[in-house]
Specification:
It is built from three helices and 22 strands. With about 325 residues, the chain is mostly beta strands. Strand 6 and strand 7 form a beta hairpin.
Length: about 325
């Protein structure tokens, strides 16, 4: 009997320990969601707002310090100065562009009243990068005035009004680490000529405006050969171009496999968030000022590379995840 009781006690201890771990994991999940990189949104100016019938009120959204791709989660509450709940037309605008519109009841409207004002509007990075403020427009075409309008509970004195807030949830924008490819490579380059080629991720879906190259560490290497029987190493001018055409890095380099030569094309560039937000793709511009034609230019050792003197290598992007 004592042994049986001891086994039962041990089992209870194990179950309690498992339960504690569940509580810890749930708490961690709750905290991570509550303190994720979201932005609490408020209305500019004095709140809450009163909107008379026939009136339209426009307010800027405050709290969105770093607009990017993501989703607006906006709820709107008010009280009707009348005998029955009334609808307002609520529009989300970016500058002069209307992104979303709903005709809806207050978020605090009685149970069974629908639709209640709850906008879930997604925006792309391209939209986020456009100029202009994000705004909410409230139009009251109903028979009644409304008072106490806000997009959060705030200081609402109503004792039965439950807590809520409006927020912006950024979309995760991270391609992680990936191998890079150079379009139309390997290629040849005659003396006195220049070619510009696009850089992009080797595999997976290319996301974002910058060809999949996000904020992070960009490591680029390249190899090439002189088109002659006698092994010869020559420098090429290589420029890394941002999506807007500006030169991010430039220099005259030898091939990555050029023994005893320096500097070799083995560069690192730290892509900033401003770089990643640019529309377009990243490019390499290669210029051959040497007296020889070069062949086999590439930013990795591909399957067509036959020379045993070229060690295995590849160019990569290691992105810093966000969102």
């Amino acid at each position: 009997m004592k042994k049986r009781n001891k086994n039962i006690g041990n089992q209870l201890k194990r179950n309690m320990a498992k339960g504690m771990w569940v509580v810890i994991l749930l708490t961690a999940t709750f905290l991570s969601e509550g303190f994720a990189d979201t932005s609490d949104l408020t209305l500019s100016g004095s709140v809450p707002i009163n909107v008379r019938r026939g009136q339209t009120v426009e307010r800027k959204l405050d709290g969105l310090t770093n607009p990017r791709a993501g989703k607006f989660l906006i709820k709107v509450k008010w009280y009707t100065v009348g005998v029955a709940p009334n609808k307002l037309t609520v529009s989300l605008k970016h500058g002069n562009t209307t992104l979303d519109t709903e005709r809806c009841y207050s978020y605090y409207a009685p149970l069974g009243t629908s639709p209640k004002c709850s906008l879930g509007t997604e925006i792309s990075r391209a939209e986020a990068n456009k100029t202009g403020d994000f705004k909410l427009v409230f139009s009251n075409s109903s028979r009644y005035d409304v008072k106490g309008l806000d997009i959060r509970k705030g200081s609402d004195p109503n004792p039965v009004a439950y807590y809520f807030r409006s927020k912006f949830q950024p979309k995760s924008e991270c391609n992680g680490s990936g191998d890079l490819r150079l379009r139309y490579a390997p290629f040849a380059l005659s003396k006195g000529t220049s070619k510009t080629r696009r850089i992009s991720l080797l595999a997976g879906t290319i996301r974002g405006n910058s060809g999949g190259i996000e904020k992070g560490k960009l490591t680029l290497m390249a190899k090439w050969h002189v088109d002659r029987v006698i092994p010869t190493f020559v420098k090429l001018k290589i420029e890394l171009l941002k999506p807007n055409g500006q030169v991010a890095k430039s220099g005259n380099y030898y091939s990555y496999h050029a023994a005893g030569k320096s500097p070799k094309f083995n560069i690192i560039y730290h892509v900033t968030q401003a770089d990643a937000n640019l529309d377009g793709g990243w490019n390499l511009r290669v210029t051959n000022y040497s007296p020889w034609r070069i062949v086999g230019f590439n930013i990795k050792k591909g399957p067509k590379e036959k020379s045993p003197l070229v060690p295995p290598f590849k160019s990569r992007i290691k992105s810093e995840c966000r969102g």
